[in-house]
Amino acid sequence: MKYLIFRKNGLISKFRIFILIVAFLVLVFATTSVAISVRYDISVGYTSKQLVRQGLLTIIDVATQIYDPISIKSPSNGPVNGKQGVTLKDYIRIEGFFGKNKLQGRFHVKALKNEKIKRSIFHFGYQHYKEPKLHTLRNEYNLDSVIEAAKNEFEAMILLRNWTRSQFRRNDYQPFMEDFNALEILRKNIRNKNNDPYMPNQYNPCYFFPLFYSQILLSMGYQARLVRISHLSDRGYDGHGMTEVWSNQFRKWITMDADLNLHYEKDGIPLNLLEVHNERYKKGLSNVKIIRGIQTSGDFQYEKEINVEDMIEYHSYIQILDMRNNWMTNHYFRGHPKRSDKATLFWVDKNLPPVFNFKQKTNNKDDFYWTLNQTEIWANKQVGSWKEMTLLFETFTPNFDYFEIWVDDFKKCTTRDSFYLWKLHSGENKLIVRSFNKFGVLGIPSSVEIFAEHAQQIAQSGRGKEKYFRR
Prior knowledge:
Layout: H1 2-40, H2 44-66, E1 91-93, H3 94-98, E2 107-113, H4 132-140, H5 143-146, H6 153-166, H7 182-188, H8 205-219, E3 224-230, E4 240-247, E5 252-256, E6 262-266, E7 269-270, H9 273-278, E8 289-292, H10 308-314, E9 317-320, E10 345-347, E11 360-362, H11 365-368, E12 375-380, E13 388-395, E14 400-407, E15 411-415, E16 419-423, E17 427-437, E18 446-452, H12 456-460
Parallel strand pairs: 10-11
Antiparallel strand pairs: 1-12, 2-18, 3-4, 3-9, 4-5, 6-7, 6-8, 9-10, 12-13, 13-16, 14-15, 14-17, 17-18
Helix pairs in contact: 1-2, 4-8, 6-8
């Protein structure tokens, strides 16, 4: 009997301890929620919901690190081959190579343009070239004919934006898709003939058109990403979706608003989110201009005048809303790190009120605006024979295919190798290299032009008789 009483009392004590622990955790949670709500000027209810949500996402994140059931398909961003035992430490950027004192009097650098790759510490997932739906989209809707009249890359992007915006009206609300697919949307061709009101299970137009436009660009070999801007009053919790596309022509990311069919320019140069955002701090009226496109969907809202100062203010909080554009191929379940807050990169401006979220954050421009499709030229530190120079080409080109190399303006070859043996001769030597992606879009060239002033031994080997390149 005493044993039963003791056991019962023990159970009661353990239950009390459990209740105290739970009560303590609830108190800590409530205190934290109140403190955060006061700090960020948001409701306690919203704060509590976000804390619980983040707790669940953290559990999923840890679980996927142990085992991720999703098979991820990623494209090659550059040459995958290399010489055994050779690293970048054995090479120096070619401008540094020619800057060595011991080379003075041997070669004279006439011209040199060597691109500089900027990399982000945050990962971005790119759409793989081997996605059948991507090529079907391009061919079935004859997108090549859309850009036939384009004089350059940027004009082609604008024509594609005009075409995208002309396919649907804003109130042709599209049903939400678990994995966005522009091909399926075009085939279904859903129209809202009765002008029914928007429903929560449908895409908001300012998110639908940027996603739609992004996949149109991807099908043509241009890299795009989904971004969002927010008013100061929205604090980044809501906002307007847009697309940023990488431009080889301007060597930068450019903002394209597919919903309102416009882009921003200053002094004739198209701008990105951060450049428009920084206009907030300029004194007086901005000289940024809004350039509207032409679309034929029949939206009456399209004729509404848009004030540039209002739009600059709309760029208070900016973010890359999804750190991937491989929606057609890589399908992640809800809560997966690739579909959680970790999939967003939020720009931190210390001049603005802080925002409460668990998104990735940065105030480093290179992290937010990394570069693409450039080729850097590196030279082997070991000089070796003056008849030849061992070069290394480095690039970050999503869906990389090959390098195109021009020697002395008339000898051309292609290679998928990082390493290249540049054979030299007395007099002028010129080399141009650029990357191509698998869509046939050419990258940004780097070039070097030197004059071999004291290369008698090289000249004796037979100027003009060298084989300048190998495939």
